Amino acid sequence: MSVFSRPIFCNGSPYRALNFAYKRLDVVRHSSGGPHFVKHDVENYSHNLKIGLKKAPKIADFWKKVFFIVMVPSMIASAYYSYQHYLEEIEHLKHRKQEDYIPYPYLAKRAHPFPWGDGNKSFFHNPYTNWVPGVGYEKLMSEEEKGKK
After folding, report:
1. Which partner for 125 in 20, 45, 83, 121 could form a disulfide, CB atoms 3.0-4.6 Å apart?
2. Can you name one GO molecular function term for this protein (predicted)?
């Protein structure tokens, strides 16, 4: 039977036994009294700081390697994928027909005008693909313009 499979009781409570074991392992005890106590504490404090400083260059070097080995290739791959998708979108726009403008009364209701421009166009307005309510498309796509877009 394993040590961990048996319940441990200390004064009738398993929780008290666990609490007792946790406290005994966690607490670092120092000898009390005398001039050596203060000296020991200062040496431990400076020793712990020096250990952290010794590990810092190794940790920084590790994250630098992670950046150059993992992140840079993934950024290049995502840029390549995005550019290929952009070329497909341009090819798709060449074959696309501009939709007819039908002024439905329930579309593009403006309770308040936009705070920029004339107040009727959204912030990312495209005169070829977005129509303006009451006006329609500002620019019609011709065959020459489809190749440029």
Report:
1. 121
2. enzyme regulator activity
The whole-angstrom separation of Cα 118 and Cα 112 is 12
Residue 120 makes CB contacts below 8 A (sequence gap 6+) with 110, 113, 114, 132, 133, 134, 135
pLDDT (tens digit per residue) in 37-61 = 555 566 677 777 777 778 888 889 9
Give the CA distances from residue 129 to residues 126, 141, 143, in Å, rounded to whole numbers and listed in that order: 6, 9, 15
**Mean pLDDT over each residue of the chain, to the nearest integer:** 74
Strand, helix or coil for residue 136 = strand
The one-letter amino acid code at 25 reads L
Q: 41 is written with which tokens?
A: 């504490």
Nearest Cα residue to 114 out of 133, 138, 87, 100: 133
Here the tokens at position 62 are: 């590790």
Say how far apart CA 15 and CA 27 lie, in whole Å: 18
pLDDT at 137 over 60: yes
- Measure the CA–CA gap between 125 and 40, rounded to whole angstroms: 70
